[in-house]
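Moderator note: this is an archived Q&A kept for reference. The question asked for a predicted structure of one protein chain; the sequence and the answer are reproduced below.
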Amino acid sequence: MHADASSNGRSLAAIIAEMRDELKQFVQTRIELLKREIQVNLGAIRATAPLIAVGVLFLTTAYLLLTIALVALIATAFVGSAYAWFYAFLIVGVVWLIIGAIAACMAVREFRKRGLMPRRTMGVLKADNIWLQQEAKGHL
């Protein structure tokens, strides 16, 4: 059924060398695809890094000022107590702890859902794997 390698004038060594070269080119293409995808992602991060830093600075300042204002407001509810400020800081701290824990849990869930794997490259590699399996079955 299969043609003999010598019938078309090619030696076994030539066929193996050609297969090796094709596999090498195949792997290099996939590596290049992965590199390009990573470079695009890093480029987006580098472009937005200064804006992110400025935003974090101002949001942190606003957070601290609003927290102090909230603590002062709550402390007025305990005016007659020697522990007014302690209670106020405790209440605000517990509320922030709960909000932060909820946000962290949501972030972890989202991170697990999205992952860090380069999706396009992984999709191509999965398709390549299916193709190779079909080719192997066809030649057996």
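Archived answer notes: Residues 5-139 form one domain.
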